[in-house]
Amino acid sequence: MTDASDLPDIVDAVEWTVALAAVTASEKELTRAKDAVAAQRRRLPMTAVRSDYQFETPTGPRTLLNLFESRRQLIVYHFMFGDDAEEGCPGCSWLTDAMTHPAHLNARDVSFILVSRARLEKLDAYQQRMGWDRDWFSSHGTTFNDDMGVTVDGDEWHGLSVFVRDGDDVYRTYFTGDRGVEHLGSHWTYLDLTPFGRQEEWEDSPAGRPQSAAYEWIRRHDDY
Question: Residue 67 is part of which domain span?
Fold first, then answer.
């Protein structure tokens, strides 16, 4: 049964409209603040990383550079699934359930993958159990997780890294962990983490970054 004390106050439509307008104003202020942070993120410097890590994939060993799949940007979600674990992290699983269709990111020159330390057969079995169809690769036997700061003294941590490539050179441009991953799940939030952003003309981006008219690039995921 519903306890009326748990519910919001009851007001007439006029008072509700006034209260909603105040919340909407705060939401717009938050949106502008998020846009400013995204612009700041696009101006982050970058640091070189090794491109020759060997990952286990369903098609055989592939390097970090290969995982870009010829695109210029790569997002890696560091999924907590250690070598000794029998199943994936509940929190990472919850987040993965909400992940977007990759075609929309691919259309903006972004590849998106999951990486864990567990062997590929464990990842494949867990993915089948969860009903996912993600590009999820194993960093087993490499120092990738350690170098990215998501395996520390044998303990696993979640996080998200963004990389950009210049030819065969790979650079890390961004990382977030802890509560920083809570807002992930929409195409916009993922694109906002990349050095090229949404690539729309309204964005405050450094000169020379790719940009086009807002929304006009969007397609059904099987129409790109």
Answer: 44-191
